[in-house]
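ok posting inputs for the iron/sulfur cluster job
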Amino acid sequence: MQYRRFGSLDWQASALGFGCMRLPTVDGKALSGNIDEAESIQMIRFAIDRGVNYVDTAYPYHEKNSEIVTGKALKDGYRGKVRLATKSPVWSIKKTEDFDLFLNEQLKKLQTDYIDFYLFHGLDKKRWDNVVIKMNLLEKAESAQRDGKIGYIGFSFHDRYDVFQEIIDGYNGWTFCQIQYNYMNTEHQAGARGLRYAASKGLAVVIMEPLLGGRLANPPAPVLNVFKKTGKTPVDSALQWVWNQPEVSLLLSGMHTMRQVEENIASADTSGINAMGPEELAVIGRARDKYKDMTLIPCTRCGYCLPCPNEVNIPRIIKLFNDGFTYGDVETSRGIYANYMAEASRAGSCVQCKACEEKCPQKISISEWMPKAHAVLGEGQSYPVNK
Ligand code: SF4
Ligand code: SF4
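and the output
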């Protein structure tokens, strides 16, 4: 295992962290609460035995059962071999006291009296302003620190770069943060700028979704051909690209099978900062170009089309629509559309007024694409074009 500097802490983190959000399940349904405990425990312990020293879970993962299984995996001496991370379910906190209620419940589920790294889960502008700040949760976290219940305070993030910077600048007690980052998402959310900004402030940066939720693991034929010529797998190449960057402290992989654990550990063993040569980086560039060639709508996510008078979240819908097509995984896009977008902001609210179109520098026929996007994402229809 390779180890890396973890921000300003005097501690080295394993390049690979074990993410307990995609454990194997008995019913075969990804993310379900019906976790295959025996297999999961074996996988987590196997990884720790080979040097993984960071285990990450969260309150809602696997329908609130991930923390329970993680706690079982860390019995028999394994708790002492790792730093444990879990997250406060910010969206469920309705009053300040709820912070402690959740924390105490998590300690119990994890069968530990101490969580090394405690994150505010999934911060965005609204959760930062309306929950963390308004309910004085930073003070609550510091109080939990003084009580010896948590070690270091951090946050995971899903919003625009400017919000990321605001959150980093808004509190001087952050030790680390967790962002989504992979070779296809360098400008999405915090992105490369956020990675560098957080590192420049001394924060450790934990990377989630290094394979874009697994989508980069099974690329379509044109992308696969790019990797075939190198003799490396798309997974190994994607992970090495993340590790290549000095600002990255570790990456989390939500491993689903023992084979994935073995492969990811083998990749981590050969990882390094600035270890990729120009040709390897060029391969990643070519894979990225192939994916971009397969993009249906040339939206740059500049946001100039907003606000839509009918509250349609145009860039987000286009991204989900594009991603489902490009990565051949429309189900993930449909799930996000149904569960994480307010109904009013979905494409079905578009009335084809075209007010957005004159503001779009890419001259995208937004009013024509919105009904098509809603048919695919909201009504289960097939894409109106073929690959
Ligand atoms: S203005 Fe055009 S390119 Fe920019 S986010 Fe809107 S649709 Fe995309
Ligand atoms: S055409 Fe649709 S998306 Fe564009 S401004 Fe009008 S309602 Fe909003």
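notes: The pocket of iron/sulfur cluster (ligand 2) is lined by residues 308-310, 312, 314, 350-356, 366-367, 370 (CB under 6 Å). The beta strands are 3-5, 12-14, 16-19, 54-56, 83-88, 115-123, 150-157, 176-180, 204-208, 250-253.
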